[in-house]
Protein backbone atom coordinates (compact mmCIF):
# COMPACT_ATOMS: atom_id res chain seq x y z
CA UNK A 1 0.00 0.00 0.00
CA UNK A 2 2.77 2.43 1.00
CA UNK A 3 6.11 2.19 -0.69
CA UNK A 4 9.23 4.13 0.23
CA UNK A 5 11.61 3.72 -2.67
CA UNK A 6 15.32 4.62 -2.37
CA UNK A 7 14.49 7.71 -0.33
CA UNK A 8 17.26 10.07 0.80
CA UNK A 9 16.82 13.38 2.61
CA UNK A 10 19.66 15.80 3.20
CA UNK A 11 19.78 18.91 5.37
CA UNK A 12 22.90 20.68 4.15
CA UNK A 13 25.76 18.31 4.95
CA UNK A 14 23.60 16.04 7.11
CA UNK A 15 22.11 12.96 5.49
CA UNK A 16 19.08 12.46 7.74
CA UNK A 17 17.62 9.57 5.72
CA UNK A 18 19.97 7.58 3.51
CA UNK A 19 18.63 5.38 0.70
CA UNK A 20 15.71 3.85 2.56
CA UNK A 21 13.45 1.20 0.99
CA UNK A 22 10.35 0.11 2.91
CA UNK A 23 7.02 -1.37 1.86
CA UNK A 24 4.10 -1.30 4.24
CA UNK A 25 0.87 -3.25 3.72
CA UNK A 26 -2.60 -2.08 4.71
CA UNK A 27 -3.41 -2.75 8.36
CA UNK A 28 0.15 -3.13 9.64
CA UNK A 29 1.21 -1.70 12.98
CA UNK A 30 4.82 -0.68 12.47
CA UNK A 31 7.21 0.58 15.13
CA UNK A 32 10.23 2.58 13.96
CA UNK A 33 12.98 2.57 16.54
CA UNK A 34 16.48 4.02 16.76
CA UNK A 35 18.51 6.58 18.64
CA UNK A 36 17.82 10.29 18.55
CA UNK A 37 19.04 11.61 15.20
CA UNK A 38 18.62 8.27 13.40
CA UNK A 39 16.20 9.82 10.90
CA UNK A 40 12.87 8.46 12.21
CA UNK A 41 11.11 11.78 12.37
CA UNK A 42 12.37 12.88 8.97
CA UNK A 43 11.04 9.63 7.50
CA UNK A 44 7.54 10.16 8.92
CA UNK A 45 7.48 13.81 7.88
CA UNK A 46 8.29 12.86 4.31
CA UNK A 47 5.41 10.39 4.19
CA UNK A 48 2.78 13.05 4.84
CA UNK A 49 4.67 15.72 2.90
CA UNK A 50 5.63 18.03 5.74
CA UNK A 51 8.97 17.80 3.96
CA UNK A 52 10.04 16.27 0.65
CA UNK A 53 12.75 13.72 -0.13
CA UNK A 54 15.98 14.93 -1.77
CA UNK A 55 15.97 11.72 -3.81
CA UNK A 56 13.69 8.74 -4.33
CA UNK A 57 9.92 8.39 -4.25
CA UNK A 58 7.09 7.65 -1.86
CA UNK A 59 4.08 5.89 -3.36
CA UNK A 60 0.65 5.27 -1.87
CA UNK A 61 -1.40 2.68 -3.75
CA UNK A 62 0.92 3.18 -6.71
CA UNK A 63 0.58 6.98 -6.85
CA UNK A 64 3.58 9.14 -6.20
CA UNK A 65 2.90 11.20 -3.09
CA UNK A 66 5.67 13.70 -3.81
CA UNK A 67 3.97 14.93 -6.98
CA UNK A 68 0.59 15.66 -5.39
CA UNK A 69 -0.61 19.26 -5.47
CA UNK A 70 -3.65 21.28 -4.43
CA UNK A 71 -6.76 19.24 -3.70
CA UNK A 72 -4.95 15.91 -4.20
CA UNK A 73 -2.32 16.93 -1.64
CA UNK A 74 -5.00 17.99 0.85
CA UNK A 75 -6.72 14.65 0.26
CA UNK A 76 -3.46 12.83 1.03
CA UNK A 77 -2.82 14.86 4.18
CA UNK A 78 -6.32 13.93 5.29
CA UNK A 79 -5.72 10.24 4.51
CA UNK A 80 -2.59 10.21 6.63
CA UNK A 81 -3.11 11.75 10.03
CA UNK A 82 -0.16 12.83 12.12
CA UNK A 83 0.30 12.61 15.89
CA UNK A 84 3.20 14.43 17.55
CA UNK A 85 5.20 14.11 20.73
CA UNK A 86 4.00 17.54 21.89
CA UNK A 87 0.36 16.89 20.89
CA UNK A 88 0.12 20.07 18.73
CA UNK A 89 -3.34 21.05 19.93
CA UNK A 90 -4.55 24.63 19.92
CA UNK A 91 -4.30 25.14 23.69
CA UNK A 92 -6.76 28.04 24.01
CA UNK A 93 -9.55 26.33 22.07
CA UNK A 94 -11.84 23.81 23.71
CA UNK A 95 -11.31 20.09 23.21
CA UNK A 96 -14.32 19.61 20.92
CA UNK A 97 -13.13 22.37 18.57
CA UNK A 98 -9.65 20.84 18.52
CA UNK A 99 -11.15 17.50 17.45
CA UNK A 100 -13.23 19.21 14.75
CA UNK A 101 -9.99 20.68 13.35
CA UNK A 102 -9.36 17.15 12.05
CA UNK A 103 -11.90 18.14 9.41
CA UNK A 104 -9.81 21.04 8.04
CA UNK A 105 -8.71 19.23 4.90
CA UNK A 106 -12.23 17.97 4.19
CA UNK A 107 -13.68 21.41 3.75
CA UNK A 108 -13.49 24.62 1.80
CA UNK A 109 -11.48 27.48 3.27
CA UNK A 110 -14.66 29.56 3.57
CA UNK A 111 -16.37 26.95 5.74
CA UNK A 112 -13.25 26.74 7.88
CA UNK A 113 -13.12 30.51 8.30
CA UNK A 114 -16.75 30.61 9.30
CA UNK A 115 -16.13 27.77 11.73
CA UNK A 116 -19.21 25.97 10.41
CA UNK A 117 -19.37 22.36 11.44
CA UNK A 118 -22.43 20.26 10.81
CA UNK A 119 -24.43 18.52 13.47
CA UNK A 120 -23.15 15.17 12.13
CA UNK A 121 -19.53 16.34 12.46
CA UNK A 122 -20.13 17.41 16.05
CA UNK A 123 -21.74 14.07 16.85
CA UNK A 124 -18.79 12.29 15.25
CA UNK A 125 -16.33 14.40 17.26
CA UNK A 126 -18.10 13.56 20.52
CA UNK A 127 -18.13 9.87 19.55
CA UNK A 128 -14.36 10.01 18.93
CA UNK A 129 -13.88 11.58 22.38
CA UNK A 130 -16.10 8.93 23.96
CA UNK A 131 -14.11 6.23 22.30
CA UNK A 132 -10.97 7.62 23.94
CA UNK A 133 -12.74 8.04 27.30
CA UNK A 134 -12.37 11.80 27.42
CA UNK A 135 -15.82 13.05 26.37
CA UNK A 136 -16.16 14.73 29.77
CA UNK A 137 -13.38 17.16 28.78
CA UNK A 138 -15.16 18.31 25.58
CA UNK A 139 -15.76 21.89 26.71
CA UNK A 140 -12.48 22.44 28.58
CA UNK A 141 -9.60 24.42 27.12
CA UNK A 142 -7.27 21.85 25.56
CA UNK A 143 -4.21 23.42 27.19
CA UNK A 144 -5.55 22.72 30.68
CA UNK A 145 -5.63 18.94 30.20
CA UNK A 146 -2.93 16.52 31.33
CA UNK A 147 -0.44 15.29 28.74
CA UNK A 148 -2.12 11.91 28.48
CA UNK A 149 -5.51 13.51 27.92
CA UNK A 150 -4.08 15.92 25.34
CA UNK A 151 -2.58 13.05 23.37
CA UNK A 152 -5.95 11.30 23.41
CA UNK A 153 -7.53 14.49 22.04
CA UNK A 154 -4.91 14.43 19.28
CA UNK A 155 -5.88 10.82 18.49
CA UNK A 156 -9.57 11.81 18.39
CA UNK A 157 -8.63 14.65 16.02
CA UNK A 158 -6.76 12.14 13.85
CA UNK A 159 -9.85 9.88 13.78
CA UNK A 160 -11.96 12.85 12.60
CA UNK A 161 -9.83 12.84 9.46
CA UNK A 162 -11.09 9.31 8.72
CA UNK A 163 -7.49 8.43 7.85
CA UNK A 164 -6.09 5.39 6.06
CA UNK A 165 -2.78 5.78 7.87
CA UNK A 166 -1.85 7.25 11.25
CA UNK A 167 1.72 8.51 11.57
CA UNK A 168 2.73 8.93 15.21
CA UNK A 169 6.04 10.65 15.96
CA UNK A 170 7.13 9.64 19.47
CA UNK A 171 3.53 9.75 20.74
CA UNK A 172 4.42 8.68 24.29
CA UNK A 173 7.85 10.27 24.75
CA UNK A 174 6.39 13.08 26.93
CA UNK A 175 4.08 10.85 28.97
CA UNK A 176 4.37 8.95 32.24
CA UNK A 177 4.13 5.12 31.99
CA UNK A 178 0.42 4.95 32.84
CA UNK A 179 -0.62 7.51 30.23
CA UNK A 180 1.83 5.99 27.76
CA UNK A 181 0.03 2.68 28.14
CA UNK A 182 -3.40 4.28 27.60
CA UNK A 183 -2.18 6.03 24.44
CA UNK A 184 -0.47 2.93 22.99
CA UNK A 185 -3.51 0.78 23.85
CA UNK A 186 -5.70 3.28 21.99
CA UNK A 187 -3.49 3.23 18.89
CA UNK A 188 -3.35 -0.58 18.92
CA UNK A 189 -7.13 -0.77 19.31
CA UNK A 190 -7.71 1.60 16.39
CA UNK A 191 -5.33 -0.48 14.29
CA UNK A 192 -7.00 -3.77 15.26
CA UNK A 193 -10.62 -2.66 14.99
CA UNK A 194 -10.59 -0.19 12.14
CA UNK A 195 -7.69 -1.69 10.23
CA UNK A 196 -6.06 1.73 10.03
CA UNK A 197 -2.35 1.34 9.29
CA UNK A 198 -0.24 2.76 12.12
CA UNK A 199 3.39 3.78 11.75
CA UNK A 200 4.87 5.02 14.99
CA UNK A 201 8.31 6.21 16.02
CA UNK A 202 9.23 4.93 19.44
CA UNK A 203 12.40 5.25 21.40
CA UNK A 204 12.09 2.07 23.42
CA UNK A 205 12.31 -1.40 21.97
CA UNK A 206 10.08 -2.77 24.74
CA UNK A 207 7.12 -0.67 23.67
CA UNK A 208 7.63 -1.55 20.03
CA UNK A 209 7.79 -5.25 20.90
CA UNK A 210 4.63 -5.09 22.97
CA UNK A 211 2.47 -3.24 20.48
CA UNK A 212 3.83 -3.55 16.97
CA UNK A 213 3.67 -6.48 14.58
CA UNK A 214 6.68 -5.21 12.67
CA UNK A 215 9.74 -3.29 13.79
CA UNK A 216 11.97 -1.14 11.62
CA UNK A 217 15.28 -0.24 13.23
CA UNK A 218 17.10 2.86 11.98
CA UNK A 219 20.66 4.03 12.56
CA UNK A 220 22.38 6.99 10.87
CA UNK A 221 19.62 7.34 8.32
CA UNK A 222 19.62 3.71 7.22
CA UNK A 223 17.30 0.79 7.92
CA UNK A 224 19.34 -1.70 9.97
CA UNK A 225 16.51 -4.05 10.91
CA UNK A 226 13.13 -4.77 9.40
CA UNK A 227 11.10 -7.71 10.53
CA UNK A 228 8.67 -9.31 12.94
CA UNK A 229 8.88 -8.07 16.51
CA UNK A 230 9.79 -11.57 17.82
CA UNK A 231 12.77 -11.79 15.47
CA UNK A 232 14.49 -8.79 17.00
CA UNK A 233 17.22 -9.71 19.46
CA UNK A 234 18.91 -7.44 21.95
CA UNK A 235 22.06 -6.83 19.90
CA UNK A 236 20.16 -5.37 16.93
P1 LIG B 1 15.14 11.10 14.92
O1 LIG B 1 13.68 11.36 14.68
O2 LIG B 1 15.51 9.67 14.70
O3 LIG B 1 15.60 11.63 16.22
P2 LIG B 1 15.53 13.14 12.92
O4 LIG B 1 14.86 12.65 11.71
O5 LIG B 1 14.84 14.14 13.77
O6 LIG B 1 15.95 11.87 13.80
O7 LIG B 1 16.94 13.74 12.54
C1 LIG B 1 17.89 13.06 11.70
C2 LIG B 1 19.06 14.00 11.46
O8 LIG B 1 18.64 15.07 10.62
C3 LIG B 1 19.61 14.64 12.70
O9 LIG B 1 21.01 14.76 12.52
C4 LIG B 1 18.95 16.00 12.74
O10 LIG B 1 19.72 16.95 13.42
C5 LIG B 1 18.85 16.31 11.25
N1 LIG B 1 17.70 17.18 10.96
C6 LIG B 1 16.39 16.86 11.10
N2 LIG B 1 15.60 17.88 10.73
C7 LIG B 1 16.44 18.88 10.34
C8 LIG B 1 16.23 20.19 9.83
N3 LIG B 1 15.01 20.70 9.66
N4 LIG B 1 17.32 20.92 9.55
C9 LIG B 1 18.55 20.41 9.70
N5 LIG B 1 18.82 19.19 10.16
C10 LIG B 1 17.78 18.42 10.48
P1 LIG C 1 13.34 14.38 17.57
O1 LIG C 1 14.69 14.04 18.06
O2 LIG C 1 12.26 14.29 18.60
O3 LIG C 1 12.98 13.73 16.30
P2 LIG C 1 14.47 16.98 17.24
O4 LIG C 1 14.45 17.58 18.60
O5 LIG C 1 15.71 16.37 16.66
O6 LIG C 1 13.29 15.92 17.19
O7 LIG C 1 13.94 18.03 16.18
C1 LIG C 1 12.86 18.86 16.45
C2 LIG C 1 12.66 19.81 15.28
O8 LIG C 1 13.88 20.50 14.94
C3 LIG C 1 12.25 19.13 13.97
O9 LIG C 1 11.36 19.99 13.29
C4 LIG C 1 13.52 18.95 13.21
O10 LIG C 1 13.25 18.93 11.80
C5 LIG C 1 14.27 20.21 13.60
N1 LIG C 1 15.73 19.98 13.62
C6 LIG C 1 16.38 18.92 14.12
N2 LIG C 1 17.70 19.05 13.97
C7 LIG C 1 17.89 20.24 13.37
C8 LIG C 1 19.05 20.96 12.95
N3 LIG C 1 20.27 20.46 13.08
N4 LIG C 1 18.86 22.17 12.38
C9 LIG C 1 17.64 22.66 12.21
N5 LIG C 1 16.51 22.04 12.58
C10 LIG C 1 16.63 20.83 13.16
UniProtKB/TrEMBL annotation:
SUPFAM superfamilies: P-loop containing nucleoside triphosphate hydrolases. Residues 2-236 form the ABC transporter domain. InterPro entries: AAA+_ATPase (IPR003593), ABC_transporter-like_ATP-bd (IPR003439), ABC_transporter-like_CS (IPR017871), ABC_transpr_PhnC (IPR012693), MetN_ABC_transporter-like (IPR050086), P-loop_NTPase (IPR027417). GO terms for molecular function: ATP binding. Keywords: ATP-binding, Cell membrane, Membrane, Nucleotide-binding, Translocase, Transport. It comes from the Bacteria. Belongs to the ABC transporter superfamily. This is Phosphonate ABC transporter ATP-binding protein.
